[in-house]
Amino acid sequence: xxxxxxxxxxxxxxxxxxxxxxxxxxxxxxxxxxxxxxxxxxxxxxxxxxxxxxxxxxxxxxxxxxxxxxxxxxxxxxxxxxxxxxxxxxxxxxxxxxxxxxxxxxxxxxxxxxxxxxxxxxxxxxxxxxxxxxxxxxxxxxxxxxxxxxxxxxxxxxxxxxxxxxxxxxxxxxxxxxxxxxxxxxxxxxxxxxxxxxxxxxxxxxxxxxxxxxxxxxxxxxxxxxxxxxxxxxxxxxxxxxxxxxxxxxxxxxxxxxxxxxxxxxxxxxxxxxxxxxxxxxxxxxxxxxxxxxxxxxxxxxxxxxxxxxxxxxxxxxxxxxxxxxxx
Length: 328
Hints:
Distance between the termini: 21 Å
Number of strands: 8
Strand order of the largest sheet: 1-2-3-4
Helix content: 40-55%
Strand content: 15-25%
Number of domains: 2
Largest sheet: 4 strands, antiparallel
């Protein structure tokens, strides 16, 4: 979950707990964003892995330490009771942990006592819909409405945002629960992949051997079930030289291009992906491997491999492409 949404959700939670107290709202919102300050530990995180991103700061223990410090320091900076500061900063920090655990980016809430992860796979780690709403909301609340509109208007905005995020979370959880009923359509080990649209999901199964990889996926829409697929693609994972040759089929283009795409982008190893191949006008063959997770506005992070029909080295390009034969 993005930092803006973390802070806004903590702000809304604090408002729900203690009302429109500026000091408490600031402390709660700050606590909602502080766990991501672990990026500052990057230089020493390799030596002390517990300080890595989504490490100790994203645990109940880390959040409680921050809340205790806040309970001591905050009353020195602004009026308020130490116990209240502790409670709202604890709540704000825990909302951050739960928000990240809600996505497909796991957190260890029980560190340092257990590495057990919390990962619901109900949303993307970065969702442009919620991030956009959060940025606009802060602009409206702080830049437009603050000291410029009646309190009733400000309260209406707060409750409207609470309703929006409550509905958004409920839709995501419903989709995450209902999609599991369709696993048998692909494979028992199929996994749900959230997209940027809260009503749309991908259901994916992957089989790997040292020599080959096979990916099968289908598109799911909340309330409609599986609406596209299943689609399957298979390719070799072993780089094989084909000097001066041009593929003669989709299968060959995919086989020859997959190792080149893996070499060109870490995306191929870090995310689930899918490929398609075409014979272009002029005789060139082209294979494109798309990430099924890094998608936005109809485009996907992809590696395009073109094989010139007259031979020569394949041309490899990495960018955001719009899928031609499928929709991700």
